[in-house]
Amino acid sequence: MLADKPTDIPRARTDGSPLKPINEVLLERRATNKFTDEEVPAEVLDAVLRLGAQAPSGYNFQPWRFVVVRDAENRRRLQQVAFNQPKVAQAPVVVIAVGMKEEWKETADEVLREGAQRGAGNPDKVEQAKQGAVQFISGMDTALWVNRHTMIAVTAMMLVAESYGYDTAPMEGFDAAGVKREFAIPEEGEVVCLLAIGRAAEPDKPYTGRFPLERIVFAERFGEPWRDK
Amino acid sequence: MLADKPTDIPRARTDGSPLKPINEVLLERRATNKFTDEEVPAEVLDAVLRLGAQAPSGYNFQPWRFVVVRDAENRRRLQQVAFNQPKVAQAPVVVIAVGMKEEWKETADEVLREGAQRGAGNPDKVEQAKQGAVQFISGMDTALWVNRHTMIAVTAMMLVAESYGYDTAPMEGFDAAGVKREFAIPEEGEVVCLLAIGRAAEPDKPYTGRFPLERIVFAERFGEPWRDK
User: Fold this and answer.
1) If we measure between CA atoms, which residue out of B29, B186, B1, B144 comes closest to residue A211?
2) Which of A194, A117, A112 is nearest to A150 (CA)?
3) Which of A152, A183, A214, B71 could make a disulfide contact with A55, Cβ separation 3.0–4.6 Å?
4) Predicted confidence (pLDDT) at residue A229 exceeds the cutoff of 70
5) A217 contacts in B (CB within 8 Å)?
């Protein structure tokens, strides 16, 4: 059974102030290097996970899984397979984001059937839709496919945590095989990202600049200058 | 030269109403199947692109590029290499998100040097930092690496567009070789995602449900039940 939309997500920060708008989040967010030991309240972590789980995925297959590491001993274990970065053990919460390359084949039928029952798709053509989906996804590099999808959900989680006023650090510095071994992640799992969540212990790192749009955005065709404003 | 933080991003929707908070965006967003021909205002598209460009990336290398397709003829051309999905030609804006597997090596020096000048890192150790970064990234599957990164920026763009009150459709249904050929994307480019932006022409598709957290979130160790609330 799939779940209905959550209805009890907090609409404000824990101190009652409004969520930080996404423009401020994206402009003010910096990757946090040092965290305090202040815990992330259960309702905030729950909102981060449940809102992240609302991310879109192809065929609604949701090939993402998340291991939430909060125990101090486990965070030290994670640190050891994450190039010994101190923030991994410091942050009160580190989410290990995993993409599953195979499991979606087993849940496809359920997801498509329930989607059809909820009004998306023809209940009589679930088997046909499933065959099309399996053929389409199997034609891609499934490691790429689950990485892409999992990053949608992780990005949503990061932005949600920041909207609730918490600090985050997305990390790609880890030994995937070590993380899999230490946290019992199945062979088919791709360790995509670590996301630390907590409170920064010191002022943010300086803003390091971004390529101006002219260098990364093109009009109509790759290489054609973008000059919209 | 990298750019400073943009300071003139609109803080409200074009009608003056506040941006939609991220909790509402994530709960209400549905992939749009039919778009009207109403254009996306230049200031909204600019905000989507500039805020998306603020996404984090490893070493701040920003290996993402975006081709913004608005010309009707080009949208039809894109539709033809996107499994003929009508929404590709209908939506007033379709962003082709591309991850570049090689270009970051050429810009690494500039990015790290300017980062150090802005206070992140030691200006005397840029060459050393660059060697470490090149070694680290080259040790990964760079196709995976740029796919992950590009999805952070695309996800941010999608959520920003929705915050400004527009509708979106992220798409993975395309022939990557065809998209590259038709839009002059270099050999090293990975076509990661298409993002259509505009106004929905009909009510949203029904909500198809999501796996409950118990099925996708684990406590401390993969497979260990999550029961936080």
Assistant:
1) B1
2) A194
3) A152
4) no
5) 49, 53, 65-68
